[in-house]
Amino acid sequence: MKFGPVPIEQAEGAVLAHATTAGDRRFRKAHRLNGDDVAVLKAAGIKEVVAAVLSPDDLGEDAAAEKIALGMTHRNIETKPAATGRVNLHAETAGVFTVDVKMIDAINAVDPAITIATLAQHAPVEKGQMVATVKIIPFAVVASVVDAVVKICAGGEIFAVNAYQPVNVGVIQTTLPGVKPSVLDKTLRVTEARLARLGGRLTAERRTPHEIAPVAEAAAALARDNDMVVIFGASAMSDFADVVPAAIERAGGSVIRAGMPVDPGNLLVLGTLDGKRVIGAPGCARSPKENGFDWVLDRLIAGLEVTARDIAGMGVGGLLMEIPTRPQPREPLPAPQSARAEPKVDIVLLAAGRSSRMGGPNKLLALFDGKPLVRRTAERALGSKAAGTIVVTGHQRERVRAALAGLKLTLADNPDFAEGLASSLKAGIARVAPDAAGAMIVLGDMPGVSSKDLDSLIDAFRKSGGRAVVRAAHLGKRGNPVLLPRSLFSAVAHLEGDTGARHLVEAEGLDVIDVEIGQGAAIDVDTREALEGAGGVLQD
């Protein structure tokens, strides 16, 4: 493949490196020019284009990505169609992701033109979540290089989603004087919810004194009728001969590992009894927050083996958080949320689209009560609790910007607006303030969304601690705007074409809060009829 300036007379069959405008025609990046295209470019006075010229032994980016993806062996994973040199792979079921690290490393070492990225080893995934992506960097790659990668892929299963199994779990809770029944009841509810997330079922509970003999007796009884036993000790394990590990052995079982290098979760015990797994849960497992207990439980319910060596290898990445219940935290704890500034939110207002369904006029310049729709939407954004407003422009950018004159907002240009919604999201997110905890994606063509509606979404986001996705809804149906936490910003860079924020919400598995704001969440004005029905007047 040759890359660089190409005389227009020699450009037929070349792949454009940049979006190019010729009169009223706009050619997208990666468009392969045909004879008619070349004629249009010539007529517009364009003498050369920057493009890639493929050799006979080259494979185009989509064909190369697709050939590699189809050469892979995997389980419970769906391969999506190739687009812009990328093939995404998604989980067909909820479970635990496993990957052959050596195989991935070998593929990524073949040639920088070919890349594969995956989730981390043993990452929990939801159905539909993206688990891996194959990306070809240039517009084409030599076929022999692709063949070398396919040969590596033939070496066995490259990755898998190990589906959660419908296991039955019995729970033991030990008691000591002063242990409140309400604590035990809450622990049971949290455990039921944790198992339900994984497709498991809590079938029985035994409450015993915190002594070796009664715990051993209860463990033996529960192991007969269940696939797994979980023991919550009233007192944390302080020695490898303490009540929980000793009870497992008294019942005729064996302790695989006592203690793990994951914090919180250090005091976990893992054993076997009658061929069933027994987990002595650490105290942090009484909370629904992620801890070392989840790391072991997820793998076991997904049918994966967990050995003493596996647990010993969890230390890198095992420092999950500092927990405030410790009497002597090793580092000063952050101030309570009430004493800190509330999470800051910027608004990204998308106003770069071509209004293609309008048949000509730009809907964002339509007048509502004598004011351009884009200006009215921007004023409502500025009137909300958002710290700043970024407006992404593209199509008819000068006219749109003129309609926004005098407003205190940030303008972000998207020269690639014709490539789809994803390009505008990228342009907007790139301008979000570094200290913003989230970005609310507001569509410029939703006249029914008010400043009060935007504030409702921001309030819900702040109550979540700035970690959840917040969506506007109407009558239980998701709509717009959508507020994304900063943890999703890096994922925006991987979006292509007309893929928007909804894809991220569905793929990343974060908590989602739907906020009912009324009919405004569902009203956009994509057509003349819809716009006029909403009270707008189109302008030429």
Automatic annotation (TrEMBL):
Any matching Pfam family: NTP_transf_3
Record-annotated MoaB/Mog domain positions: 170-302
State the InterPro entries in the record: Bifunc_Mopterin-bd (IPR012184), MoaB/Mog-like_dom_sf (IPR036425), MoaB/Mog_dom (IPR001453), MobA-like_NTP_Trfase (IPR025877), Nucleotide-diphossugar_trans (IPR029044)
What are the protein's UniProt keywords? Answer: Magnesium
What is the protein's given name?
Answer: Molybdopterin-binding/glycosyltransferase family 2 protein
Q: Which organism is it from?
A: Mesorhizobium album
